[in-house]
Structures are given as C-alpha cells and as structure tokens.
Amino acid sequence: MIGAPSDIKEEILVACRVINKWNNINSESRHCILMPLHWSFSSYPSSGSHPQKLLNKQLSEKSDVMLSFFGAKLGSVTDTDISGTVEEINEHLLKGKQVMVFFRNRI
Predict the structure, then answer these.
(1) 18: Cα separation from own chain's centroid
(2) Rounded to whole angstroms, how far apart are CA atoms 11 and 15?
(3) What is the DSSP string of 60-79?
(4) Are 39 and 46 contacting, i.e. CB atoms less than 8 angstroms apart?
(5) Which residues face 65 on adjacent strands?
(6) What is the model's pTM?
(7) What digits encode the pLDDT tens for the residues 57-80?
C-alpha cells in the first residue's frame, strides 16, 4: 500500500513504476507479484462508516506492507487520528505489518 497526503503525487507515480519494474524483473523467479494500492486508483465508493475507516477496510486490510510519503502536509484529520496517512500507518503497525516512511528533501 502507498499512503501519502494530497501534496504527494510524483512520489506515488515513481513508487508504482518501481514496483512494476520489480515485478517485471523478479516476479517469475520469486513467485511473487507486488500490487501497488493507493486510494486514488484502488478504492471504490462505499458508505456506512467514516471515509477513512472505509479506506482502511478496502486497502489497509489487504496490504502486507506500507510505503508512506510525506512532503509539506501531514494530511487531513480523521475521526481517530491526526491524518489519514498516520491512521493507515498505525493500522499497519498494530497488525505487525512493515511500514516504510519517506520524507521529501525539498518542499
């Protein structure tokens, strides 16, 4: 899963390209395919809960590892955390999943 606030766009595209390149080089020999998940292209309309909780159910629960990117913004506050991305990080950590956090050098 790729998590990032709305000011991160280029890094998401780069991460997807790198993941796809890894798949092309390694998936056959390692019998493993990595599937990038991001709310902008992996989620679907739903209702019945807080929007972030719906995203957590659609994406975080399916994910084995999370790549997180931050720039100038932390993200939007949710009903339980300081930002959606931070909530996604916490969801992964609570379930013992790996999380990698990256920061832009320049804003």
Answers:
(1) 15
(2) 6
(3) ITT-SEEEEEESS------S
(4) no
(5) 98
(6) 0.91
(7) 999 999 999 999 999 999 999 999
